[in-house]
Design goal:
Histone, subunit A, Rossmann fold, globular, Helix Hairpins, 9% strand, alpha/beta, 293 residues
């Protein structure tokens, strides 16, 4: 079956908050439907912190094909547009091979981009992206959100004041193009093929169960070598092998485990802070998926 011939094609999307059980659901679905699991997580696409970003195990990968996991180096950029192009290629490949595409991940922006298309925003030059990240590091996300209100009030009103990635993105688009992100987004989009039908599976446990799963998963990560992984990654950062401020360093729990390794906080404090950070992130994801998807 080819996506270019107009025959209807079903693309499954398994979405929901972190630690909610998406990967296990997608794995089961792939077994039933001769599926290929296509990553839709902005951290799992990177190589370097496989355990901390909860990437599929080697056993999972042996059971069904998994693609777009650990394919980028830590310093490489990844945006919704870059991911859309990669995912579209993998979807078409799966269809051509007679397999079922199953998108799995919690990045709502990526999912919307795949389903609705993306406005033709030019790629941001690396030096402007670096300037935007440096500005965020200097003044913090809340202050950057206030700056964005003056430049692009419409985008600022849509973003949570602590959603660093989106605020930095809107800031850098204005810096690079002199045009608001909200204005770019009103232009016509590169929509997916008309015969692609998206079937959404939202995996959203009850709040208490979700928070319990967040805490348990972080403990399991520590048991499976997350601390050693962070130690190795930190050494590569300190030596300059990985350039400063890579996106992957924003992985949940990384900063707290690194602070423990540097002797700044106890292991217990690092664990508690990482678990709290994960629960707060999961809560924001639940709100987004309930309202936006």
């Amino acid at each position: 079956m080819s996506s270019n011939r107009g025959a209807p094609v079903t693309i499954h999307i398994v979405a929901g908050p972190t630690a909610g059980g998406k990967s296990a659901f997608a794995l089961g679905l792939a077994k039933k439907l001769n599926g290929v699991v296509i990553n839709c997580d902005s951290m799992q696409i990177y190589d370097g912190l496989h355990v901390l970003t909860a990437q599929p195990t080697e056993q999972d990968k042996r059971e069904v094909p998994h693609v777009l996991y650990g394919i980028l180096q830590p310093a490489e950029p990844c945006s919704a547009g870059i991911w859309q192009a990669l995912a579209t290629h993998e979807i078409k490949t799966a269809i051509e091979n007679g397999q079922t595409p199953i998108i799995c991940g919690g990045n709502g922006m990526y999912i919307k981009t795949l389903m609705e298309g993306l406005s033709p925003i030019p790629e941001t030059p690396p030096e402007i992206r670096e300037r935007a990240n440096a500005r965020q590091e200097e003044i913090g996300t809340a202050a950057m959100h206030e700056e964005l209100k003056k430049r692009d009030p419409e985008s600022a009103a849509r973003f949570h004041p602590e959603h660093t990635a989106r605020i930095v993105r809107a800031w850098e688009v204005f810096e690079a193009t002199g045009k608001k992100l909200s204005d770019w987004q009103k232009e016509s989009k590169n929509a997916p093929p008309e015969n692609w039908n998206f079937e959404i599976h939202k995996i959203i446990p009850e709040r208490e169960e979700l928070y319990r799963r967040c805490d348990m998963r972080f403990n399991r990560m520590l048991d499976n070598g997350a601390l050693e992984e962070v130690e190795d990654f930190s050494a590569r950062l300190d030596s300059g092998e990985i350039p400063a401020n890579p996106l992957l360093a924003k992985a949940l729990g990384f900063a707290h485990l690194r602070a423990f390794l540097a002797g700044k906080i106890s292991r217990e404090q690092a664990t508690t802070l990482a678990q709290t950070e994960t629960r707060q992130y999961a809560k924001r994801q639940v709100t987004w998926f309930k309202n936006q998807l």
